[in-house]
């Protein structure tokens, strides 16, 4: 909570900039008037530390984490009442950027200052140059003169925290863009989605076409980037209030909302177009449907009803179906089975994750099973973990894999079911965490095992071919 | 009576925070208007507000601001304040009610707020879960309304932003064309 900055405002001369402000910020006229009166009551020259600090932040090199010693051309009168070693004050100081001290030098000529903007500027510039020097001189005045100059060596974390507390220009730095885009599109999640789509492609019982594989993966990746960007665009105020998501680019103001939407369009339109034209219309349709489901159904539903989890599971299930249809061009039971794997997997994964975020979800207004229906949450996670065993058994029935698959996937399926059972029974933080982390490696493992047990020939009864690095092409029958 | 007192306190806190936000923005704007000639033509975004966790933005006002740009700026400003109010109130209410819940639960168990070492007692996450569920259910309609309003504002702002960008691009293009035609530099 702030300490009121009014007490530190005595050095503030509102009048000199009041004219300009009255034009710019008509609402704040009242505040301006009250502040001016405050100033008149306390005429002491309060060249406070925060004035210099504020200017130093803007004009001094941002990359230094130490206060450098600079040549001190001249020393303006400094009355530093704030002790530099007082950390709590430092923090408050940084929160309230104040007027530059140049105006205070004007003193009684404050009313005329508006007529001399140039003078003000020159004072300002020279003060700015002195700012860093002043900081050091300030420390000399307040600290013991025998100590070495106050050099702050910050850790990277502290530096990030300090930079985060400052006011920043909403200007996009070209060099930062890749990183911003990566975080905007939730690149890790996109990578997972592309992997599941690739697995769907690879599992399809057709000759492997590398070009089509690459194109469909690219299209899926672009569609996923678009969906994630729109999701972040919708959720800015909610993300700000949750610890897990408060470092997202839109929340931090690194880019504008329009920029995020443009990025989403720039990814989504080519992505879906690529899927529709270069792969096949069915895959393109599924891609567009998935974007729609994620942005227009799942995202708003998160705050309205617990059914969002089921919609989210469908969203996760569509990419492997897309991979399959990209390869074969039609929607087959095998595709739906792969989608079923993802659908069932989603529940132990998400329910375990949301279990430990209940407070954040509640405060943010998200309606999740873990908050509103905890018993159902645990039950559903367990039910679907067991369902994975059933689906694995279904795979050879649908000729997607051989019968080896349910057998070799049984250990990992049993393990996740065991953890889900422990979660159902105990329902505490550690069991939820264990289940969540298990789900993270369980899925790739399952898909890999399915790939190794892939059935290449559908017409030969029981004869399973050994997995080869390149699938053999069979005469069309 | 205690409830009324805490409500007054909460309201006062909330009001103070809102005024402080306006104050901080005003101070920064004052600083900025002086620094503006130093070349800053961008918006500035600040650190997250401690109550609402939202970051305030100071909007740059160009000298030749059009009507559309002014509308956009006002809408963004207003939305920001509206958002800040909602979340500050939400967070304050949440903390207040959580505190009350913990105290009432501890009292029901016959325990004091602090244990022998002077540390605060906390409830297990299972016990807290009933509070979380209650909070969500109680505020369900309020959240739904906020959601609708937020989506509407977000869309409007983005559309306006798009229009403003297109307009300024069009202006730049036509100015460049007319300057080429006349052969004189544009103002």
Automatic annotation (TrEMBL), chain A:
First-listed, main subcellular location of the protein, grouped into a coarse class: mitochondrion
Record-linked InterPro entries: Protohaem_IX_farnesylTrfase (IPR006369), Protohaem_IX_farnesylTrfase_mt (IPR016315), UbiA_prenyltransferase (IPR000537), UbiA_prenylTrfase_CS (IPR030470), UbiA_sf (IPR044878)
Membrane topology classification: Multi-pass membrane protein
Catalysis: reaction(s): heme b + (2E,6E)-farnesyl diphosphate + H2O = Fe(II)-heme o + diphosphate
A Pfam family it matches: UbiA
An example molecular function term from Gene Ontology annotations: protoheme IX farnesyltransferase activity
Family matches, as Gene3D superfamilies: UbiA prenyltransferase (1.10.357.140)
GO biological process: cytochrome complex assembly; heme A biosynthetic process
EC number: 2.5.1.-
Protein name as annotated: Protoheme IX farnesyltransferase, mitochondrial
Origin species: Oreochromis niloticus
Gene: COX10
Automatic annotation (TrEMBL), chain B:
GO CC list: mitochondrial inner membrane
Domain of life: Eukaryota
Subcellular location field: Mitochondrion inner membrane
Main localization category: mitochondrion
Entries under Pfam families matching the protein: COA8
Similarity comment: Belongs to the COA8 family.
Protein name: Cytochrome c oxidase assembly factor 8
Species annotation: Oreochromis niloticus
